[in-house]
Amino acid sequence: MDITKYTALEIGQMIKDKKLTVRDAVLSVCEKIEKTDGKINAYIRVEKEKALIKADEIQKKIDEGTLTSPLAGVPIAIKDNICTKGTETTCASKILGGFIPPYNATAIEKIEDAGMIVIGKTNMDEFAMGSTSETSYYGAVKNPWNTDKVPGGSSGGSAAAVASAEAVCALGSDTGGSIRQPASYCGVTGFKPTYGTVSRYGLIAYASSLDQIGPLAKDVSDCAALLDIIAGHDNHDATSSDREYPSFLASLDGDIKGKKIGVPRQWFEKGLDPDVKKAVLCVADTLKSLGAEIVDVDLDFIDYVIPTYYIIATAEASSNLSRFDGVKYGYRAQNVNSVDDLFSKTRSEGFGKEVQKRILLGTFVLSSGYYDAYYRKALKMKRMIVEGFENAYKKCDVLLCPAAPTTAPKIGESLKDSMKMYLSDVYTVSVNLAGLPGLTVPCGFDGDGMPIGAQLIGPQYSDADVLNVGYAYQSHTDYHKHTKEV
Amino acid sequence: MWETVIGLEVHVELSTKTKIFCGCSTAFGAKPNTQCCPVCMGLPGALPIFNGEVLRYATMAAIAFNCEISKTSVFDRKNYFYPDLPKAYQISQLYFPIGKNGKVPIKVGDTEKVIRIHEMHMEEDAGKLIHSEYDNETYPDYNRCGVPLIEIVSEPDFRSSAEVIAYLQKIKSICEYLGISDCKMQEGSMRVDINLSVRKKGEETFGTRTETKNINSFRAIEHAIEHESARQIDAIESGERIIQQTRHWNEDKRSSYAMRSKENAQDYRYFPEPDLLPLVVTDEYIESVRASLPEMAESRKQRFMSDYALSDYDASLLTASLHTAELFEKTLSKINMPKEIANWIIVPLQKLLNERGKTLDDVSLDPDNFAEVISKVTSGKINRASGMEILEAMVEAGGKIDVDGYIKEHSMEAIDDDGLIVDTVRKIVGANPASVAEYKGGKTKVLGFFVGQVMKELKGKANPAKVNEAILKELSK
Questions:
Q1: pLDDT bracket for residue A92 (50, 70, 90)
Q2: Contacts A339 to B, Cβ<8 Å
Q3: CA distance to partner chain B, nearest, from residue A104 (Å)
Q4: Could you say which of A282, B113, B126, B159 is the most buried, measured as most Cβ atoms within 10 Å of its Cβ?
Q5: B269 touches chain A (CB under 8 A)
Q6: In which band, very low, low, confident or very high, does the pLDDT at B262 lie, cut at 50, 70 and 90?
Q7: Pairing state between β A260-264 and A451-457
Q8: Pick from A411, A378, A372, A298: which is nearest to A39 by CA?
């Protein structure tokens, strides 16, 4: 049975109704991967055998009635920067080659407790540093809508896997837009929760104060169902919030009457592709027709978000990635003549160019004499961005803007001009700096048939509200249902 | 005419059961890499969780060192590469440490002085590198990674090694009384870095300083200070300039070498640790910790003086170290002879320990055993010399022996047999009529002669009280 056109919740229901076995669900996804992934390169590793063993265990529990999650038995793809016990986890880097975590990330524990089946580890930009999924040691990921184009990044493997039906749903991580931007490029739904909603324990850190795990799926309901599983306080993560979350899935009612949708006009000016602009403004019209009120809001920090983000993210990254030194695990350079030589050779040979560039940048902004000029100033700017959002939310409930200024660029284009690549994060990074929830929903296509995504951003802990606006939108549009046969 | 100026950085390992950011044991001496987990080994994706017990210990220390306690203190990352530091950064505190502006009073001879504490912060320890002679490789042991430390940074207030030692003993004593650390330099639970410069007496400005590391005993501290001070004075007198640098002390060779100079000093790129939230302590918390502080040396000394009628001198010596004070009180609970016990601790026990270069940290003398020896001597069951001998055997055995067995084995029992004593006294008195006449003529000094003779006859083992009594009785006949 080909299950690839169904959503995760539909598959979960079919399993519950005994119309589908967990084993067949796994086999169907694996078959699709075997057929398609040669063209997409969405996966670094597919764990078919492990998944099948797990499928039988889970089937038994479902039959016994001990698993009640609506996604029990549903296969899921996991970004390769999330630790999976016993399965190599590389962050798409040579330097982590051979690293098999002895523990599961908390999100994986929860996924497994719910009875979901990890099908494989998805490709990504090395250490999540990139917006195109081209910097992977395991080769670039292709966009299923046009394999000459990038899928976006850094969770490009997860987005492309969902878009090409090589995955029912996936987990990604978002540090500056790494879920929302590839979701936009690949025409899938992606959600970055409020910082602290999902435990970061076991997520290999890029920038600790910005990183957040989130779902990529076929629609908002699937995202909400996944969030129900992975959200919640974790004693292993001091930055995880101790709030109690109601069911995100159950709170989707599609009623947005009287909701105020803020449109930040400054964000629709320079650098925005006309097709993207048109499609996103159309979303405003649709939401208005559903009873929402559209208001203009002022968010004037847009010119500062890229430098602020790249200072804070690279500073933290330079420290987070220092542990990859060849001493304990992963790649180790040979023929070294001292400990310092071991460190520098291992890191020079093990990290790709983009990662090295960001480590150097981060090292520079933290170094003595420059800390005040860069890092401290960026922290101040971060504070102003938080306040800017707070002011905007005095006038509206949810903000609407693009997820990216353009549709997916051609493979190779961005690496030639990294400034251009960095600027493609302009609509997403401020959301991480302020720790807010952000959702990308497909909202149209450009002249070349490439998907466009709209972004909905809410105040901290308004995740359910944001998802509900997206749900209302998807209940009255079908952009998220378009697929492209690879 | 030269003056030595010293400031200290003291690291003290806190004796919490578990590590500062994970649940692993902090016990010393386990097999390499058996007390670690993804967190303290810094595996990718692992995150630190702060152990609240460390805050309590650090707050106790900050109160005892008279520090101002920061209501909000923040952890920072100190970044550097080294194989014993698995994350390549140490979680420490730079910008907002838990304690600031403390004061520690010390006493050298009769001179009292206050050492100012610049700041006191919490941090995690690094691992250890073990060099294998077998295959000439170096292996990391991560058991010590994440063991909690406090670092106490003094102002440059010391002018001699005697002041430094007095201060360190005070720090050690305070930590022991608080029960937050055993402060054993040999085991590395107390580590001292010495910042030292010299200047002409009377000068206002400081000279260029060096930092000396790897000092593992109080004796080595003295040697290192003398050596570094002399080295700098020699250099200046022969026209050289002192270079700001870090030096490595070698106690065996009694010399140091330069590890790195200021020019190639590490840039630690400190920044706030994003994986941990700022620590907020309330006034109520500080007060609750203050209220829970155990009795400290000074108040115990006052209590010893008032409750046990000990002199200021005796009480000071007994309370300088918690181990000594505890031994005294525990022994006292067995035999109520405060002055006698104090004398035994202050004189013979101290001498025995000094001769062996040990303290009561190393030899945990069993108070029951100790009380047994003292009471056997005071009750005349054995004589004082035998008592000393048994005490020495106890120290040698690490603190405890079978006292009765030892006495038997060495035939130390005092002769308690009244008949034998009286017979012997009669014999000696009968054999020395001249001395008896002297005694009766008022020369009571000859009493000592009779005691000596009787003791000699009984090979020194007679109960002296009984001998005295029997002689007096015999002579009064």
A1: very high
A2: 82-83
A3: 10
A4: B126
A5: yes
A6: low
A7: unpaired
A8: A411
Chain B residues close to A105, C-beta within 8 Å? 45
User: Exactly one of A32, A79, A149, A382 is catalytic; which is it?
Assistant: A79
For the beta carbon of residue B134, count every other beta carbon within 10 angstroms: 6
Nearest to B89 among A209, A238, A322 (CB): A322
Q: What is the mean pLDDT of chain A?
A: 96
In a domain, A324, yes or no: no
Residue A166 has pLDDT above 90, yes or no: yes
A131 an active-site residue? no
Question: A243-247, B361-365, B461-465 — which one is most confidently predicted on average?
Answer: A243-247
For residues A12-21, average pLDDT: 97
Inspect the interface and report whether the beta carbons of B47 and A237 lie closer than 8 Å.
yes
Tell me the C-alpha distance between A276 and A295, whole Å.
20
Q: What is the pLDDT of residues B11-47, one digit of tens each?
A: 999 999 999 999 999 998 899 999 999 999 999 999 9
Beta-carbon neighbour count of residue B385 at 10 Å?
A: 11
Contact A44, A123 (CB under 8 A): yes
Q: Active-site residue A251, yes or no?
A: no
Provide the number of structural domains found in chain A: 1
Provide the token pair at B69: 């306690």
Burial of B35 by CB count in 10 Å (0-12 exposed, 13-18 middle, 19+ buried)?
A: buried
What are the angstrom distances between the C-alpha of A379 and each of A315, B92, B385? 11, 20, 74
Q: Of A200, A203, A196, A206, whose CA–CA distance to A236 is shortest?
A: A200
Tell me the pairing of strands A75-79 and A170-174: parallel
A contacts of B267 (beta carbons < 8 Å) = 367-368
Tell me if A396 is assigned to some domain: no
Strands B210-213 and B245-250: parallel
Strands (DSSP E) contained in B109-250 are 111-124, 128-132, 137-141, 148-154, 190-200, 210-213, 245-250
Instruction: Please name the residue of chain A whose CA is at the shortest distance from the CA of residue B21.
Output: A236
Q: What was the pLDDT predicted at B241? A: 92
Residue A110 amino acid letter: K
Do B79 and A322 lie within an 8 Å CB cutoff? yes
What domains can you pick out in chain B, each with its CATH number?
9-161+171-189+259-287 (no CATH), 295-409 (no CATH), 418-475 (1.10.10.410)
Within a domain: residue A152?
A: yes
Query: For residue A145, what are the CA distances in angstroms to A79, A408, B145?
Result: 20, 10, 49
pTM of structure: 0.91
Tell me whether residue A418 is in a domain.
Answer: no
Q: What is the per-residue pLDDT across B331-367, written as a single tens digit (0 to 9) for each?
A: 999 999 999 999 999 999 999 999 988 888 888 899 9
Listed residue (B10, B459, B428) closest to B221, CA to CA: B10
CB contact under 8 A, B45 and A83: yes
Residues 6 or more apart whose Cβ sits within 8 Å of residue B400: B365, B366, B369, B394
Percent of chain A whose predicted confidence (pLDDT) is above 70: 100
Amino acid code (one letter) for A147: T
Contact between A133 and A397 under an 8 Å Cβ cutoff? The reply is no
**pLDDT at B104 > cutoff 70:** yes
Read off the CATH number of the domain in which A231 is found.
3.90.1300.10
Residues β-bridged to residue B258: B247
**Average pLDDT value for residue range B260-275:** 85
Q: Which chain B residue is nearest to residue A84, measuring alpha carbons?
A: B45
Mean pLDDT of A62-85: 97
With CA atoms as reference, report the closest residue to A435 among B269, B75, B39, B274: B274
pLDDT of residue B263: 63
pLDDT per position as a tens digit, A250-284: 999 999 999 999 999 999 988 899 999 999 999 99
Using pLDDT thresholds of 50, 70 and 90, give the confidence band for residue B391.
very high
A58 is in which domain, residue-wise? 8-255+466-481
User: Which residue in A89, A105, A316 is closest to B274 by CB distance?
Assistant: A316
**What kind and span of H or E run contains A122?**
strand A117-122
